[in-house]
Each structure stands twice: as structure tokens, then as C-alpha cells.
Amino acid sequence: MAVIFIRSSLIYIALLIIMRLMGKRQIGEMQPFEFTVTLLIAELACIPMSDFSIPLLYGISAILAMFILHQFMTLLDKSSKTFKFLLSGKPSIVINRNGVDFAELKKNNLDVQELIESMRILGYFSLDSVYFAVYEANGTLSALENDELDFSPSIPIAVVKNGKLDNKNFEITGLSKEELTKILDDNNIKNLKTVGVFTVDENGRYYLQQYNKKYVTGYING
After folding, report:
1. Comparing C-alpha atoms, which of 26, 41, 40, 23 is closest to residue 77?
2. Closest CA to 59 of 80, 73, 42
């Protein structure tokens, strides 16, 4: 027991020192290479604590090697825009003046529902409540608020996502098939598959956007 306690304590102290030297970034603010190194360090720390056949020095050396690699990658990230792009990626504008940029979402392996969830975390419940939204290289979402909105905020429900009708959400909104058809007809939409996103809130306000087109808003029966 004493040996386990001592080995674990030494590994803990070594980890504490290494993580302190790596900086004060939170997990959500880490670049991909930083997060990868952090996971590897955590895994390497577990091995010498549980396997007595591995000298403690080997475990500490492996952790130190990961720290040196991290410092080297950080240097490359800061010294060259090319390396920064390769290691960390680049910000991606997923909402612009025309609405959702579905091509950028696809590049980032995201869908409309994930974008809506990320916006709700920031306090924005409608897709047109921001002028621009940017997924940063570290995966966080930044947004520029639309200060011209003239309606009371309400939680919208995504009825159509990526050209497909969500039957459950369709029922929740109380929208009839006739009302949906009328909205599509009013906007010269012949095929539901061309609709990237269609949301309706409790006030009857809808947000409708086809692929590669500017979004439109309105009210049901309005």
C-alpha cells in the first residue's frame, strides 16, 4: 500500500508540474493538438501507477516527452500560418447575412441541430438572432448579435432539418400539413428536400432557408 501511495503521489506531482507549465487553457479552449497531448499524458500517467513492473522513471520520462512534444507543436503553431492551419484548423463562418452556411457546416461535420444547440448555449434561440456565427478553431461558437430584431424571443422547434421532416417536432408545433404546404408554396418551394432548415416558435414565427439561398421569416397565417 505504501508503495502504491508513493508512486501515485510522485506521478501526481509530476503531472501537476507539467500541466502547470502547459498553461491555463480550459479543456474547451484547447487546440486539437493540445487536447491530444493532454489525453496521452493522462493515459501514460495511469500505467506506472498500476503496473509495478514498469520503473517509475519510465513513466515520468514518457510524460516529460509529451510535454516537450507539446512545446514543439506550440512553437510551430505560433511561428507559421501554414503549420497553424494544419495543426489547429481555422475559424469557420457558419451563419452569415444570408443565414446558415450549410457547406461550412458540412466541412466541420456538423448539422443544423448541433448549430441550434450551440447557439442556445450562448443565449440565442433563433437562427436569425445573430448576424454572424463562427466556429473557432478550438470548437467554441462565437456570435455577433442581430440588434434589429423586432419580436419577442421564443424557443423555436426545428420542423425540417437537412431536407427531412421531423414528424415528432411537426406534431409538437401543431402545424397542419396544409399550413406547411402553403408556406412552401408562398416561397416557391416545390421540394422539401431543398429546405436546409425550417423552424417554428410558439408565437407562430417561422424561419425558412433553402440550400444556397437567403433565409426568409414570417408568421403562420400571417
Report:
1. 23
2. 42
Is the pLDDT confidence value at 87 over 70?
no
Does residue 26 have a pLDDT over 60?
Answer: no
Cβ atoms within 10 Å, residue 163 = 15
Per residue in 67-78, pLDDT tens? Answer: 787 778 778 777
- The C-alpha cell that represents 80 in the structure block: 507559421
Cell reading at 209 = 432557408
Mean pLDDT of the chain: 82
Distances in Å between the Cα of 207 and the Cα atoms of 4, 97, 102, 197 are 60, 14, 15, 8
Closest C-alpha among 111, 124, 101, 94 to residue 214: 101
| Residues sharing a CB contact under 8 Å with residue 73, sequence separation 6 or more, in sequence order | 33, 34, 37, 87
Q: From 90, 149, 93, select the one nearest 124 (Cα to Cα).
A: 149
